[in-house]
Amino acid sequence: RYVQEMDAYERYTYNKKFDVGTLSLRTQLEQRNNISQPNANGSSVRYRQQVKFVYPFVNTKWSAVASEEVFVNLNTVNWGPVSGFDQNRAFIGAGYDFTKEFRTEVGYMNQAVYRNLNSMFIDNQLYYIRIMGEHETKDTFGAGARVDLYILGKDTNNLNTYVIDETHTLY
């Protein structure tokens, strides 16, 4: 079933460069609100933790990328999300830097989703592309604009196309 959401989130990302690559730890707390069902009650709160490593290839714009992200619902609401484990995403692929501000990653993602309302476990095998861009403007308040990520996937089992995440951030 399709649910349209209007979400707010807080995010903290820690990046640590090593001689062999960059480790990123991203923590995100989401407040998810269903706006497509008139009887939907309350905000779902979901915690996400991602660990990612990017290994750049010498003298190229290419890199190897691996990440793991766990999602946990912190409460139960009447329109779907149930408290507890929600999903896990494991990714392995290649990254390409078009410019310093614009990058893409393509590869394979395994998305394991648990839907507690029907005691259903879904294991999606996805071809995956993520496009990231960032442009910061310098004004007196240090504000900028950022298009953070789009994630598209194609299920290898039944070849359905999914929009897994779509995030636009202005700050």
Quick overview:
The chain has strands at about 5-20, 20-35, 45-55, 60-75, 85-95, 100-115, 120-135, 145-155, 160-170. With about 170 residues, it is mainly beta.
Number of helices: 0
Radius of gyration, in angstroms, nearest whole number: 17 Å
Low-confidence stretches: 135-150, 159-163, 166-171
- Strand portion: over 45%
Can you describe this structure?
Helices cover 0% and strands 69% of the residues. By secondary structure, the chain is mainly β. A hairpin with a 2-residue loop joins strand 1 and strand 2 (21-34).
What is the element layout, followed by pairings?
Elements: E1 5-18, E2 21-34, E3 44-56, E4 62-73, E5 84-97, E6 102-115, E7 120-135, E8 145-155, E9 161-170
Antiparallel strand pairs: 1-2, 2-3, 3-4, 4-5, 5-6, 6-7, 7-8, 8-9
List keywords for this structure.
elongated; 171 residues; mainly beta; 0% helix; disordered C terminus; nine-stranded antiparallel sheet; single chain
